[in-house]
Design a protein that fits this description.
This protein is α/β, with parallel strands linked by helices. The protein has 14 helices and 25 strands. The radius of gyration is 27 Å and the shape is globular.
């Protein structure tokens, strides 16, 4: 069940563990198995719910709760768990936001019924889904509104047969993600009961423009807000039924909540949440270095070059590079590059509502530069948005800071191994602070002379931005556009300060490549019939637009 990863995966079945930078626990009872690991820098604990709640008060409850007091650095799904761990157990905890896959959950062009529809996440096998309370609430709804259609999902007919349901309903059973998205898109109200940590389901409903009813408990704080993006009810059938009926009867309220929720949910993505987890890992693993740097008010050391990496890591990178340098691999990389340009793979993206694209692989004698004017004294760091083509590149990337594009001497030089640069993220080039830099013109350029096709990074540029005092250069020639970068300086009071373009406003417009990629995913996951259904829905939507 593992996804594709660039690293190696090993199935551990007891005995000594390999030396590591970090161990990440993912379930409470593994804390007792791996809690005494010593050959790692730090042990992290991935907490997705308050797991003691899964048991009656007893041995299992107390053993699960005790794991939160064992000194691990916790990473939690959502803010409530972080607050709970800090306040109840004194644990070191940070969180990432629950999010949505916007390629799956969006308002689908489906036929909506001419009567109200309420969908309910009904899974009796999981007690925390509170199916008896939900069923009684829906019975009250049906008593008041005989025209309401009730749709269950999340369990088989056999499971539901054990639960008395005194009103007509349809059970959709276990649904694929695409079928879930279609159900949410066709429903007026979605009922989800989250007595423990907030479920992902309300966010997925919000992304499909389905109004949400959930419980008025602190577990949903930071995700759902009463009468802002959802209606929250006390955990009684009467209160839940009243919330559902209010949404069905008050269309202006329902539409307002739906539009607010939809707008808010666009800012959440699993990519952003993954980056947050990555940032927590980096911060905790280098915590002492971070504190020392802040006390000294100097920039953190940058990422290492190849020569500074451990010998084993250098050997692995050399082996990867040698494989990619073989003639056959080089030809495949070049052909792939031609196809990408033909299909406009690197186009069709917007950042801050401005079109952006990549400049192609940065190889050999290629050099991309940017002139700019510093706004503050003590310029000490420049972040540049790079792309890694979703692979682990191996050669060093060299950054040069110069007084002008015609200068041949460096004010600063930074060398970073490309394997440490994340895809579609900022690379930080840190150097000695430049005194009296305020108002001065500078130029920086990036090159990677040892890189080859199939083993190189790229840089992102704004396509049609041409600002005064800033010019983009390819080699020695000025070209249209601007690199996406941010400047940082050292302030005597605040330490390192600066700003770079926000990435949350990254959006995509349809291109042949994106459409082909989506079609391929549908074909692999749902077969020809699934692809045909999506094409049919798309054509109907286009025809009605």
């Amino acid at each position: 069940h593992f996804t594709d990863l660039e690293g190696n995966l090993f199935k551990w079945s007891g005995g000594p563990m390999a030396e590591s930078d970090a161990v990440i626990l993912t379930y409470w009872d593994t804390a007792y198995v791996l809690g005494d690991v010593r050959n790692t820098s730090k042990v992290f604990y991935f907490v997705q719910d308050w797991e003691p709640f899964f048991y009656p008060m007893g041995v299992q409850y107390l053993r699960a709760e005790q794991t939160y007091r064992m000194g691990f650095s916790c990473i939690t799904a959502g803010p409530w768990l972080t607050r709970q761990l800090r306040q109840s157990c004194g644990a070191d905890a940070d969180y990432f936001d629950l999010a949505v896959d916007h390629e799956i959950y969006y308002p689908r062009p489906v036929d909506r019924p001419d009567h109200p529809r309420v969908c309910f996440y009904a899974r009796p096998s999981t007690p925390r889904r509170l199916v008896p309370i939900g069923v009684e609430a829906l019975r009250r709804v049906c008593q008041c509104r005989s025209d309401v259609e009730i749709v269950f999902y999340g369990a088989s007919d056999v499971e539901l047969a054990e639960q008395p349901i005194p009103f007509p309903y349809t059970n959709r059973g276990i649904l694929t993600e695409d079928k879930l998205s279609e159900l949410f898109s066709s429903s007026d109200v979605g009922l989800v009961l989250s007595p423990t940590n907030c479920s992902r389901v309300p966010l997925e409903m919000m992304a499909c423009k389905c109004a949400v009813v959930d419980l008025n408990r602190e577990t949903v704080q930071g995700v759902l807000e009463h009468e802002v993006n959802a209606l929250l009810a006390d955990p009684t059938p009467k209160a839940i039924a009243e919330a559902i009926l209010r949404l069905l009867d008050d269309e202006p309220l329902r539409l307002r909540l739906v539009e607010t929720a939809y707008r808010q949910i666009q800012e959440r993505s699993w990519d952003k949440s993954a980056r947050r987890v990555e940032a927590i890992l980096y911060e905790k693993l280098s915590g002492s270095r971070q504190i020392l740097a802040e006390r000294r008010s100097v920039p953190l050391p940058g990422l290492p070059a190849t020569a500074d990496l451990p010998s084993g890591q250098r050997e692995r990178l050399e082996a990867i590079h040698a494989e990619r340098k073989r003639p056959g691999a080089q030809w495949r990389a070049r052909i792939k590059g031609w196809v990408k340009r033909l299909l406009r793979v690197d186009q069709g993206s917007l950042l801050n509502r401005k079109p952006i694209q990549t400049i192609g692989e940065l190889t050999g004698k290629g050099r991309i530069g940017q002139s700019f004017v510093a706004q503050h004294d003590h310029l000490c760091r420049i972040d540049v948005l790079v792309g890694a083509y979703d692979r682990r590149n191996t050669r060093d990337v060299i950054f040069h800071l110069r007084a002008s594009p015609t200068s041949t001497s460096d004010l600063a030089t930074v060398q970073v191994n490309a394997s440490l640069l994340a895809d579609n993220d900022y690379a930080s080039f840190v150097f000695e602070p430049q005194p009296d830099s305020r108002g001065k013109s500078y130029y920086f350029c990036v090159e990677s002379p040892e890189s080859a096709p199939g083993d190189a990074i790229t840089l992102w540029v704004y396509c049609d931005v041409n600002l005064p005092d800033t010019k983009l250069y390819r080699g020695n020639h000025s070209i249209s556009g601007q690199l996406i970068f941010g400047l940082y300086c050292v302030d005597d009071r605040w330490g390192e300060v600066g700003e770079r373009p926000l990435q949350y406003d990254l959006a995509h417009v349809p291109t042949p490549w994106r459409q082909l990629s989506k079609a391929y995913r549908l074909l692999v996951t749902q077969g020809v019939s699934g692809l045909a259904r999506e094409i049919h829905s798309y054509l109907r939507w286009k025809g009605s637009a």
